[in-house]
TrEMBL record:
UniProt keyword Ribosomal protein present: no
Residue ranges of every copy of the HTH lysR-type domain listed in the record: 1-58
Gene3D superfamilies: 3.40.190.290, Winged helix-like DNA-binding domain superfamily/Winged helix DNA-binding domain
Entry annotated with the keyword Iron: no
InterPro entries: LysR_HTH_N (IPR000847), LysR_subst-bd (IPR005119), WH-like_DNA-bd_sf (IPR036388), WH_DNA-bd_sf (IPR036390)
Pfam families: HTH_1 (PF00126), LysR_substrate (PF03466)
Keywords: Activator, DNA-binding, Transcription, Transcription regulation
UniProt-recorded name of the protein: LysR family transcriptional regulator
Length: 310
């Protein structure tokens, strides 16, 4: 087992594909396949289940990936701490982004950080809020965006924005981005929703329980892209924040309308671990991420969101 094999494991886990992992790592596909094969031989058990929809981690794969993520982060940080260049922001910073925000923020954030701090290495980890919170507490990521997490003595959080949740459907459903639909009407529609314990699903379930409303859930998935693909396939409607469907609505591929009575909104917070001191690199990344999110709101690229920072 070596560092290259562990990086290949995490790249495949994040992309669901050996081909896309090779592109992410900037190496040829056979090299990634070989690294995975050697790692599975060393471990003595399969680390992925290979299906038509891609590659999913097995239980053993999940265990190894979680440990590998922490180990590689510690190695990268150690290299930065041993011989930092005086007066230059260097080292490695690992940033956790939510699936609904990754497409909007990742490329711009990395570009801005590389322009400002050429000596800085930026890692982006994408995961649902529960995973990101665990990675923060375990030391696998340095900072992350979360959905209004449960109070934790291990985290420092700052609320950044409040965002509306939208009912999303195909164009012929004639949903209006400027209109709204009551939750009890939404509940009668066939819905494709995240599975529990996804934060959005928990929010929906709490709102429905308070109003004695029962949702008509026809499919569940823990992947946002599959949520949207099932809508594209005509299976039903889904519920997502505006940032997750901004491009699709603008291009006419989907339509959306806000949910009301009660209005469904959620907070996005920036979280940092309290168990370790934030490096200069982390503090620089925090500043850039906050500024980028505010900029996206001002440019109208985050519909239904309100900036909360004074």
């Amino acid at each position: 087992m070596d560092v290259k094999q562990l990086r290949a494991l995490l790249a495949i886990a994040e992309t669901g594909s050996v081909t896309r992992a090779a592109e992410l790592l900037h190496i040829v596909q056979p090299a990634v396949s070989r690294q995975l094969r050697l790692l599975e031989e060393d471990i003595g058990t399969p680390l992925f289940e290979r299906g038509r929809r891609g590659m999913d981690l097995t239980e053993a794969g999940h265990i190894l990936a979680n440990r590998a993520r922490r180990a590689l982060h510690e190695l990268d940080q150690a290299k930065a701490d041993i011989a930092p260049a005086p007066g230059i922001v260097s080292g490695t910073v690992t940033i956790g982004l939510l699936p609904s925000t990754g497409d909007l923020l990742a490329a711009a954030l990395v570009s801005h950080l590389r322009q400002q701090y050429p000596q800085l290495t930026v890692n982006i980890s994408v995961g649902y809020a529960g995973y990101l919170q665990q990675w923060l507490e375990d030391g696998a990521v340095d900072l992350a965006l979360l959905y209004d997490p449960k109070p934790s003595a291990l985290l420092e959080v700052q609320a950044l924005l409040d965002e509306t949740l939208y009912l999303v459907g195909l164009p012929e459903k004639n949903l209006s981005i400027t209109g709204d639909m009551a939750l009890h009407d939404v509940a009668e529609l066939p819905l494709v929703l995240p599975s529990q314990p996804h934060g959005l699903r928990l929010l929906l379930d709490r709102a429905c329980a308070s109003a004695d409303i029962h949702l008509n859930v026809v499919a569940e998935t823990n992947a946002m892209n599959i949520q949207k693909n099932l809508v594209f396939g005509g299976v039903g409607y889904t519920i997502l924040p505006g940032v997750a469907v901004f491009d699709d609505v603008a291009a006419g591929r989907l339509t959306a309308t806000a949910i009301s009575q009660p209005a469904l909104r959620r907070k996005i917070v920036l979280a940092l671990p309290l168990t370790r001191r934030s490096s200069i690199a982390v503090r620089c990344a925090v500043t850039e991420l906050r500024a980028l999110i505010k900029q996206k709101l001002q440019q109208g690229e985050w519909p239904g969101a309100t900036w909360l920072v004074e």
